Amino acid sequence: MKTTDFNELGDLILSESFREFVEGTNPESTRIWNEWIAVHPERKEALETAVNVLKTLMNTRKSEIIVDKNEFLTKLMRFIDEEKPDSARSISFVNSIWFKIAAVSLLVIGLSSLWNVFRNHNIKVRELAYNEIIVPLGEKAQIILSDGSHVWINSASRLRYPVMFGETSRDVTLEGEAFFDVVKEHGKIFVVNTRDVKVNVLGTAFNVKCYPGDEKTQTIVVRGEVKVEDVHGDHKAIIIKPNEMATLQNRTMPDQSASHLNPITVRKVDPESLVSWKDQLLVFNGESFEDLAIKMERWFNVRIKIDDMELKTERYSGKFVHNETVYQVLEAIKITTPIIYKVEKDTIIISKIQRKK
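-> structure tokens emitted (357 positions)
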């Protein structure tokens, strides 16, 4: 069944590609249904209902139990009919597949007694299905989430997100760097979880940078407002607005005392230059040569060693497009900065030219 072919929830539940989408077992099915969700936001509620029902009907492992689906659905409906008061029963309700499925979904969430039916039949309800995108060095990726939010993911990054968001929250987990353009949904906060901070938004555009090897986590707002929280609880949450960046020094030791941690700091920045990576532009704006080297390693998937302590603190500004090679960038840097470089095995070694006195 194609995504455009279904008219009722029953069609969805019987679709193999939709089952793969809910289970997160087929990237192609995930891509197809994410695209469908983005194009048909008005049918999102129906889709979420189908997801809940399908999770109810699926077994965690086929080897655990063999059961006829029609028989099991009949038992569920009989249970529902017994739980309802007589006044609530009606022929139209019982005969409507839409309302039967919706009732099953609601009971799974709200009635502990239905869980006993599942337990007696050795059936388990799966937890929310997640996808994970791992972007290697030298590459970038984009994705449209189930709510229509657009995410650009930088190289050497990892994003974990649910196939379908829940009813009250939209949580994702990031390691690395990503730019989020979040669709606003009333009452549903969008949360980016990282190792050291939690970023809470409703509808906005912002960038989060939280690589494991970096000394700090940075959040930059392009549009709207975001709240940045220290997940360790050592500092108060900070609200940042457009053209502002919040920075938190990452913990170096698990038992580091809160009194020795720097607070979250906020300063004015030029967001365009700092998030230009999503537009395939490599931009340096007064950055230290050490930070420049780290950015180039991720961008070009190379290893760079700076063989001069003084050179690490030199500042450099420049802009390059993605189709330039690392050597073309180094040659451009040489025009304004006195450096030389050589390649040994898989490492580029950069040194500062010592001027003659």
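Confidence is low (pLDDT under 50) at residues 59-70, 83-126, 253-259.
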